[in-house]
Specification:
The protein is mainly β. It contains one helix and twelve strands. β2 (9-13) and β3 (17-21) form a beta hairpin. The radius of gyration is 15 Å and the shape is globular.
């Protein structure tokens, strides 16, 4: 059984001080065929992965607004126009196609959501070891 584990990143929260967040490195394949490394938070509450606009346009060479328009709602119930594209990805040494949304702005963090990632792996948030594993 393959197992890909990623250590959590220590960050500072204005609410609770030092906190450890689940971050992974995912590789996205550009239109030119190059693999682009992106660090993203693993978000079990996100329906779909989302990335800032520049990742789609500048790094992957996508026409962002050529995708399927969605308006996901965040925790503050605010919507954000985004466009879904299917792109080749690699997590660990596992390659597959995944849908991801590219936001209208660059002012969003990269998030790995449930669609096409949680469907493919058992995802374990190991608080004791401070790591996220995809099994």
């Amino acid at each position: 059984m393959k197992r890909f584990c990623f250590p959590w990143r220590q960050e500072y929260s204005r609410l609770v001080g030092v906190i450890y967040r689940p971050v992974v490195e995912v590789l996205l394949r550009s239109q030119a065929g190059e693999w682009v490394s992106v660090e993203a938070y693993v978000d079990s509450g996100a329906d779909i992965s989302i990335f800032p606009r520049y990742i789609g346009e500048d790094l992957l060479g996508l026409e962002v607004e050529g995708g399927v328009l969605i308006r996901p709602m965040g925790i503050a119930r605010q919507t954000l126009s985004s466009w879904i594209h299917s792109v080749p990805v690699r997590l660990g040494d596992e390659g597959f196609e995944a849908r991801g949304a590219f936001a209208e702005t660059n002012r969003v963090p990269s998030l790995i959501g449930r669609t096409d990632f949680f469907d493919r792996f058992t995802v374990v948030f190991d608080h004791k070891e401070r790591e996220t594993c995809f099994i």
